[in-house]
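Purpose: get a first structural picture of the assembly so the mutagenesis plan has something to point at.
Setup: two entries, given in the order below. No constraints added.
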Amino acid sequence: MADLALDPRAELNPTLVQGDATYAGVTDAISVITESKPPKQWYYAMAVAIPLAGLLFFCLGYLVMNGIGVWGNNSPVGWGWDITNFVWWIGIGHAGTLISAILFLFRQKWRTSINRAAEAMTLFAVACAGIYPLFHTGRPWRAAYWLFPMPNELLGMWQNFRSPLMWDVFAVSTYATVSALFWYVGLVPDLATLRDRAKGLRQQIFGILSLGWRGSARQWKHYELAYLILAGLSTPLVLSVHSIVSFDFATSVIPGWHTTIFPPYFVAGAIFSGFAMVITLMVLARWVYNLQHLITIKHLENMCKVILATGMIVGFAYGTEFFIAWYSANQYEKFAFLNRAFGPYAWAYWSMITCNVISPQFFWFKKVRTSIPAMFILAIFINIGMWFERFVIIATSLHRDFLPSSWGYFSPTWVDIGTFVGTIGLFLTLFLLFLRFLPAIAISEVKGVLHNQLVSNKGGH
Amino acid sequence: MADLLDKLPLPAFLKPADTGGHYGVIGDFDTPEALLRAIRTARTAGYTKFEAYTPFPIHGIDDAMGEPRSPLGRIVVVCALLGLSGAVLLQWWTGAVDYPIIIAGKPLFAIEPSIPIIFELGVLLSAFGTVFGMLALNKLPTYYHPAFNFSKWAGASNDRFLLAIEAIDPKFNPDEIKVLMDSLGSRCTELVEA
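Result (structure tokens, whole complex):
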């Protein structure tokens, strides 16, 4: 246990897990958040988030009434902000699964106090992502017939399973379902803790939600194995999801999309942007709920290191793309990339490079990795940069078609902008509700870490 | 009801055990280590029907209780195979049998483009098998359980480590068990109603 980075004592709340910490103290510290009125910062944050979420529903209603022509995408840029936002949100979700599943398998104890919130972030990000393809169909109430193989009289035919868009339907819906199951299974013992502390209606609600969990040794036995299996399933799943999202592009014949580098490049970018969003949200959660003692600077610093590593992979992928465009000797490919960097969208390309390649380099310095304002600003830059990455890939590859007669330029409409800003509002609203009403930190897991520590303190090893 | 069941010519295993209206005796321990010691002692004393309630999983408790490994893994393997083969059947039957239509000159069914959905459905059904299998093995949801009648029940999800010796145990004798549990360090030992 010489490695401080793996030692739970160095990671967790000093008042929670130091010598005088108790199991009851852990229960109280986390449960009390859900049992008392939120601090005023929560209301300030909600006051920003709810109107934006309202804007989303307004824009979606406007779209349904008027058709998808209210968005800016049109020939030749048939995919615009909708798919950009879809890929961006899905990518953000990936950090939650990485923390909850992959770091669990690698026995990274520092994940314990952030995994619950990161999993919630995954769910809400995937929900925001799903809105775009669903509403891009124009008739979302019929979308299930088009997207899922349901026998029906409406079409009288089956989906084309050789299309990557169908793979995407299965990947994203599986990802949403498995993430929700994983999150809920993790919540059950903590919901039982809230039930046992509550009275009246609150006890009934948490009683129903906790499924009558008793924490018996036999229940824990099946539960622990289930948790391990879900982590094992989620790990390849999360890697497959962004790979399959990248197939939407990579299996096409469009220069700039048709590359084999896409799956790993998308996955690295997803983790890169996801961790930036986790940092954004954790800084917010620390501010709203004064969770400085649970989400420590060490957690944040570790996440900055992940961002630095994945940011380097993303930067390397940008370089590789350019090299291959030249090395392939394919004039269309070469044009697509020169056009990306020096064409009408150069402003977007260089914004992407600045945000994604240059800004993470600051994380080489420990001073930056341990400064909340610095990492918050850099994380916002990375969120913006990764949004630009998807925009650059989508818009620049499409806007100059093979024939110059079908060249165009994509500009978003107010509905595009309103929908995007609206999903950020929905995401923040859901996250704030989660912080308020559910245990945002895994109570039983923290107690497990505390127990190991008490034992090793006593045993002196 | 119990009288009626007694009169019926049923084999013994179908008749509810006579528990005298009790669930069992529950003792309340301070630490996981005290609980493990109590479990080992109770087992040595010959009790077989017992259960522990803890706020987090305790390493080594299955060995102490003599619990077999969870069969969940086998359930998940079956579900995974169902998902993988179901995805092959789905894509082959819809694409090559029920609605064969040539798109871009590609074969009606081939394994390569089917891999992503085979993988995803394999994972999806495995996850269903894991979660619903776990719930079924744990008999959840169960909204009533006699252990909830223990006066210090709330501790079991907070900071207490409970051991219940159930009334269906052939050696069940509340007074003896109380003495045993108290001697092992139980803070509160109670005979709990069913």
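Residues 1-16 of chain A have pLDDT under 50 and may be disordered.
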